[in-house]
Each structure stands twice: as structure tokens, then as C-alpha cells.
Amino acid sequence: QARVARAEGQLVEAQKNYQRKAELVRKKLISQSEKDSALAARDSARAELDSSQEEFSKLTAGSRPEDIEQAKAALMAAKSDVALQEQKLA
């Protein structure tokens, strides 16, 4: 949750920075490339927020049934392997 909050703050700051740069470009005080860099930073911050929110949702939703089934299958395979190895040692 802290990661989501941090990402939200970064997005807000990046959006403000982009808006400032856009205004400065409009007034011809900075180059278009500076505005483009601010836009890229904003888009990156937005992607980071989306990623953080998705990860948080996964963590709070708990394990998916298919993940549990996959883990059970892996456990059964490991138990079978142990039993086979024990038979070889006997």
C-alpha cells in the first residue's frame, strides 16, 4: 500500500511538471524536447502506479484457485519423488 501511495504522489508531481513544461513551451521559453521528457516521465509514473495497484490487488485478493492447484500438484510430485528415492535406498 505504501508503494501505491508513493506511486500516486510521483504521478501527481509528474503531471504538474508536465503541465508547467507545456505552458513554458507554449510561451516559447523552453524546447519541445523538454516537454517531451516531462511527458515521458508522466507516462512512466502512470505505468508505475498501474503496476503498483495491480500488485496490491493481487496481494490483497489472496491466492487464486489455479495457483493453489498448481502448488498442490508440485507438492504431490515432490512427495512422489521422495517416495521413489526412499525405495531406491531400501
Count of beta strands: 0
The major β-sheet equals: none
The shape is rod-shaped
Rounded to the nearest angstrom, the radius of gyration is 25 Å
Taking pLDDT < 50 over at least 5 consecutive residues as the criterion, the unreliable ranges are none
Whole-number tally of structural domains: 1
Number of helices, where a helix is a run of at least 4 consecutive DSSP H or I residues? 3
The ordered string of helix (H) and strand (E) elements is: HHH
Strand content: under 5%
Content-based structural category: mainly alpha
Helical content band: over 70%
Measure the end-to-end span. 52 Å
Mean pLDDT: 90
Region (Disordered): 35-64
Protein name: YbhG-like alpha-helical hairpin domain-containing protein
Biased composition (Basic and acidic residues): 35-49
Pfam families: HH_YBHG
